[in-house]
Amino acid sequence: MSNALRFGLIGCGSQGRYLSEAASITGQAELCACADVNPEAAQRAVALNGYAKAYDDYREMLAAERLAAVIVATTHDQLQPVAMAAVEAGVHALVEKPMALTAADGRALVEAARARGVKIAVGYTLRFMPERVHMKKLLEEGAVGDLAHVFAGQLIGGMGGWLGDRARGGGPLFYIGTHVLDQVLWVVGSRAERVFAEVNRVAQATSPADAVEADASVTIRFEGGVVAQVCCSQRMGGRYGWLDVVGSAGRVRAEWESNCLYVESHRPGAPPYPATIEVPADAYHPAYSPEATARLTGFRYIRAWAAELTDFVGAIREDRDPRASGEDGLQVLEITDAVFESERTGAPVALLPH
To answer: What is the C-alpha separation between 85 and 350, in angstroms, rounded?
Structure first.
């Protein structure tokens, strides 16, 4: 691993350990140090992922270790301040979504990283799922013609623990909704102009101001006239998600945790559609070292996380933007800001041009 980048981990819960597993199978990351406010969690990362040293304080780790990059996988409210500390130390950061809780904080992080010449990647893993990559390719090839409508959603069951705490960035909009918002922005590829939202809050004994969303239904109008309708909810009692893109020549649909695409195209010369395309699980993923091992290789997301980490390392080495950059994360946060403002006012919210 002589050419591997020296990596640290901040936030040693399950997601941090999953991402560490992914980093290990790339063969491009030397797992040097990890930090967590819970010493037992940090020690688990040492035992399970092979980090060389554990810290109780990430600031101490950043000061003591000669790191090239860190994975930041804390609770949502801590993502931005932790990533900012890494940036100020001159360390590249792969930050779990949503990167920050407000666009102002996200913008401050992006600007600080730009000033220090370090890379920020945001953990929008669906960009690395083979079926979503293939969907993007079909759209770029004109399979559905000119885009007109996008219908998308991410639904899960009830959320507990810190994910049910609004002050810590809980709620389905930040947890799963940001994934689908990023997907919508990614496939549309133009500037969002206006947002309108209907939000229901979880009923609880404390003030409604403290309650996370039960669900949010969002309409986004884009420059050029594309309109997207997005739903995220914790009221399903299961897991389901979809991304349905409709255009002048057909439509294409992907579903969460399925590697199949439904395609209908009427453009001249198109293959015979409608059809269901099964995208191989390893399509569009880099080859990994045969010596690299991980306990979770059978887990569907491990290869996508490894592709995410490979892209992040490539962005550092090639001095380019990651596929899901800090700027991409900021665009999502501009939408979430507008969702909450539209909830407050009951009116559509216009987004300022960049």
So the answer is: 32
- For residue 231, give the H/E element and its range: strand 227-233
Question: By the 8 A CB rule, do 38 and 18 touch?
Answer: no
| Domains by residue range for the chain, with CATH | 5-125+289-324 (3.40.50.720), 127-282+332-350 (3.30.360.10)
Closest CA to 126 of 321, 324, 345, 262: 324
Which tokens sit at 345?
């006012």
The torsion angles phi and psi of 309, rounded to 5 degrees, stand at: -65, -40
Length of the chain: 354
Q: Which residues of the chain have pLDDT under 50?
A: 298
Pick from 275, 280, 245, 248: nearest CA to 263: 275
Side-chain half-sphere CA neighbours of 48 within 13 A: 19
pLDDT of residue 143: 92
> Beta 213-222 vs 192-201: how paired, if at all?
antiparallel
Classified as helix, coil or strand, 198 is strand
Cβ neighbours of 209 (radius 10 Å): 7
DSSP 136-174: HHHHHTTTT-SEEEEEEEEE-----GGGG-GGGT-SHII
pLDDT of residue 173: 98
Instruction: Give me 72's structure tokens.
Output: 């930041």
146-198 pLDDT per residue, tens: 999 999 999 999 999 999 999 999 999 999 999 999 999 999 999 999 999 99
Cis peptide before 274 (omega within 30 of 0): yes
User: What pLDDT does residue 311 have?
Assistant: 98
Alpha helices in the chain, H assignment, sequence order: 14-26, 39-49, 58-64, 76-88, 103-116, 130-140, 172, 178-188, 300-318, 326-345
Contact 103, 351 (CB under 8 A): no
- Rounded CA-CA distance 178/192 in Å is 15
* pLDDT the model gives residue 206: 63
List of residues 6+ apart from 1 with CB closer than 8 A: 27, 30
